[in-house]
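TL;DR need structure tokens for one chain.
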Amino acid sequence: MKFFASIIFLSIIISCSTTPDPIKSNIDVDLGNVVVQQIFNLQNTRNSKAILPFLTVDNPSHRYVAAMALASVQDSSSIIDLAALLKDEYEEVRYAATYALGLIKNSAAANYLVEAFKIDSSRLVQAAILEAIGRCGTEEHLRHLCVVRPYPTKDSILSEGLALAIYQFALRGMVHVEGTKKIINDFMANPTMSSNGKFIATNYLSRAKGINLNRYENVLINNINEIKNPNTLMFLVTALAKTKTEKAFKTIEKTYYKYSDYRIKCNVLRSLKYFEYDTVKSLAFNALNDNNHHIQITAAEYMFYNGRDKDAPQYFSLANKTQNWQVSSLLLAASLRSTSYFKTQTKLYYSEQIITKYKTSTNSYEKGSLIKALANYSWNYKFIVNELFPRNNKTKTPDIIKSNCAEALVQLRSNPFFGKELGLSKNNISKELNAIFKRCIKQGCVATKAIVAEFYTNPVMNFKKVYKDLGFLKKAQSSLVLPRNIETHIVLEKAIAFLEDRPNNAIKKSTNFTEIDWPLINILKEKKTVIIRTNKGPITLELAPEVAPATVTQFIHLSKAKYYNGKSFHRVVPNFVVQGGCSRGDGWSGFDITVMSEFNYKLDYKDQGYVGMASAGKDTESNQFFITHSPTLHLAGNYTAFAKVRLGMEIVDSIQVGDIIKSIDFK
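>> reply
TL;DR here they are.
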């Protein structure tokens, strides 16, 4: 009860307090300073023990940099030393220590944060403390935060910190009915709440799992009618859809036609899954005719996941009329998936048409998408296997096709109608596929190994009984080249641990990592602009070497070496990210040098156009990067951000799978 009492007491003090003291410092992260460079180098080598002494030096800038370094290292043994910094006289230093304690994600840090919250005079730091508690606190901390009385309007920064705390708990799988009630009453139903507070609240309402919003339909509708900011509105429509009412759908449908922002429309289309198909399908069908490819693809995805047998012929017909190969492939997949399992002749016909289109296509990405479409009928397994492992040894299967074939076989075997479609042949074909999966591990590329290994952790498949001897998995894991194949190594370890009924072993950390090129970084203090030249047009980035010097070093070195020239954007998720830089073209390539994760609250993914590093987990970044279409708060503290789009966001929005990076140039 100590935490509860202190928070209630503090809320009373804050309600009566005056304006917080002004900032008392001039923190300067001078990248030319040898001490700053030393601390960043220690961060890069994950030497937390050597960083700790810098927390007590006289120079506040060095204390600040040291605390931020520990936010990236995330060593629990540094909690006590960081906690001492919560009493530092400089606001930015306390803020950095708070941020670091949150990212360590150890509940031991939460108690120190609670005590610091009582005495800190800065609203900014107190708000940061609340969010940090959300990152590392327990369910008891969450329960107590949920009953804190509302902060005064003038203290909106504290309200925002509280909302971020509840949101961070939700990202960790911890939600409380009183927390949802607080978000609704104190944020969405409060006309004086700041726009940023409502933005954070809608992120919580849209992303939190297991929350019931049925009681709050009118509050959410009122907000949709009042809020104009697309960054908030796109999350709000998702939240409203969770109520699953007719009134909610009508409001969402009206919103779809009212706004031109494709991101809002995409979220509306994704929210259709909460309603009866026959009620909402006309909106999805209309969206297929939109000129924006993101909207078309999202509508086709809805058909794929939610389609009905009666409309399967219409999906098939539309697939043959559209000019966009992604939309066409998804609709063909929808037609095959939606057709009832007992309609053998229809499924055969659709499959034959897909195979014909596959054979005539010269686009590897389209072929891969069509292969996955075939996975929606179990008898197509032979064709998929033959494409993955051609009978003619001289035939070279492109990497993109290999990975898609593996994904298709996993999808096919997971089909709930697998047994019904195959009938008496089910057992024999199951054994045949088990042998193919094993072959993928033994003879496949890094992508097929990883895709199948991930499938082995599916408890429904009961692979523990199928594979008694796991030697083939262990041999495949030991043959991987690290750090280049670290992602596949991680997935194989997960599969082996699952099949052996034991905990995962720790990830092997790379000893071959990018060293910070300080002469280069110092040049970038004045020249931070780079241009990604694509076949769709230029995208201008502003790099952030003061936040992520190792990542910026890697990005520039690869760019100057022309590594990115000719690489494709292999992944585009509408209203989320475009991703590129993979040498295989399917997202499964790594590099011989990794980049250690660099986290910083100054690049927080609260807007569109953030540039981050793709990752298989902390300290596994390499060569692939992504650019966000919209705010992605859930990525902050988990994915290194190292740049921001300054010009050319419309080009980012125009990128489709297969578009090319021509070059990356420096002004």
